[in-house]
Amino acid sequence: MNKSVLLILLITACVSRVAVANTAYYTELVGATGKINWTTGTISATGYGIEPSNKKPTVAHLLACRAAIVDAQRNLLESFQGVRVSSTTLINNYMLTNDKIKSSVEGTIKGATIKSKENLNNGTCKVVLQAPLRGNAANSIYQSLYDPASLSAFNFLEMFSPFIATVHASTLTNSKQSVEQQLQQLSKRITELEALVHAGNNSKNDKNINLHTTSITGVIIDVRGSRFIPSLNPKLRQPAGDILYPTKETAASIIDNGQLVSLFATDVEFAMEHPLVGDTPLLIKANKTWKNSATEITLAQKDADKITYLVNNNLLNNIGVIIVLE
Description:
It is a single chain. By secondary structure, the protein is an alpha/beta fold. It is globular. The strands form 3 sheets. A 5-stranded antiparallel β-sheet has the order 1-2-3-5-4. 32% of the residues are buried. The two termini are 40 Å apart. 44% of the residues lie in helices and 20% in strands. It has helices spanning 3-24, 57-81, 91-95, 99-110, 136-146, 153-164, 170-173, 179-205, 248-257, 268-272, 301-312; strands spanning 27-30, 34-37, 42-50, 113-119, 124-132, 218-222, 235-237, 243-245, 263-265, 282-285, 288-290, 293-298, 320-324.
């Protein structure tokens, strides 16, 4: 084949891959000028500054861009506050009640990267800042949700409200106990219940499932056609409602690795080739959300059994998850 023809084909292939990647990104506008890229796990915001009229042009340009950075940081904070943690809560809800989360978000904004800086002809400067959702900001959220040592009463009730009515209601009504003691006792009983369920799943499901687990390098959930929307803490559920992912164990691994519970994309082929899920990901189709929650997915029983198998054998702790949506 002619070398020039081969070069053209290679360039065309590269351009096509870039185009697919760009359209496969799931982005969402948030705040005044913010944008969440749920595929890369980043958030960006734009700021503007005006040149002061009483300064030399060279100095005025610098001051305009300094003001633009401050404006972009303010807009980035607003954007972070609007990021969904679940279908009913935003990061702002946690920042109002948790100083560690507030400090982590503010620190992330201060360390944001300047993606572009431009002096415009009208005497203003435009700056775009970008910061990661993963890392300190997300970790502080996950620790609040899944770490018993930092679990607040608000988060505890949010996570375990389905169990509270059936697990020794007297624990919550004993006025002689402190709130902390009550939560510790209830947490212990829930842990015991989880252990029983875990043991039952091991004996019942593992016999019938052969996933060739040594080759599974990630999980892709295709939820196109549903009303699912992305969040920092999406959940996979059994048809009966039990949470399959994330568990406390997988959340601990996510925190240690500085990852997000899941990334999101709009194209299955793009997701299949994403390095997060490796060379041989498990692909699952789901089109139903859990009750009124648009950030939680109900799996068919056969697919729920597969995820249960992976969880029971600690195979979800170190692999990535991508959810594909429209």
